[in-house]
Amino acid sequence: MSDVSPLEVRRTVVLTVLTVFAGAVDAVSFLTMGKVFCALATGNVLFLAFALAGAGDVPVARPAAAIGAFLAGAGLGAVLLRWFAARGWRWFAVGLVAEGVLLVGAGAVALVRHGTGDAGSGADADLVVVAGVALAMGLRASTVLRVHVPGMPTLLSQTAFAQLLNALSERPRVVWRGMPARERMARVRWTATVVGIFAGGVLGTWLLVPLGTGRALVGIGAGVLVLAGVGRAALR
Fold first, then answer.
1. Mean pLDDT, the chain, integer
2. What is the 3-state secondary structure (H, E, C) of 146-207?
3. I need a labelling partner for 229 at 20 to 30 A (CA). Which of 47, 71, 147, 176 fits?
């Protein structure tokens, strides 16, 4: 990809890993924290609408707490990352470290309150853990938005899916070798977003959910912290 810089390639790799983590977070949150999404905010908006309309089995408090915490994390992240960037700090690594710490902290709370089981029972415990994870995902949204890699929001795949299908329908006969480097990279990013969310969901369901909420969140948070160190070196 002669027209694509090595930095862009490294950014794509780092954001792909973050996308996998997001899928894993939602698998853990939905399956072990009382049917709530902590990364996919759109799902919580719908759950809240269902609950307010008196349908479904999800109480108002859980999606409301997730939405509120996500918004708080996104707003706080926007302010803090701007502050760090203005002072020459490596704000991307700071954002990932903060996310990882929040996830590990939420996992620790789940371990204290629920042991190695799920955090899907007990409204008070659920709200604390849900809010902590959603806060981390809101912060992630601001971090990735500031990186501004097109087609890789890391928290949802619908837009990437549509962009990929639209590109394939417009130029179905263009083979990979005859494609401009920028177009190849765009398709790689869209594909990585869709596959990353799916892979994270599978990873979370098969490997993390059986561990219980607390251990799963601590594991994901530790992975984000490792990526913060690796990403800091890779994105220089």
1. 86
2. HHCCCCCCCCCCHHHHHHHHHHHHHCCCCCCCCCCHHHHHHHHHHHHHHHHHHHHHHHHHHH
3. 71
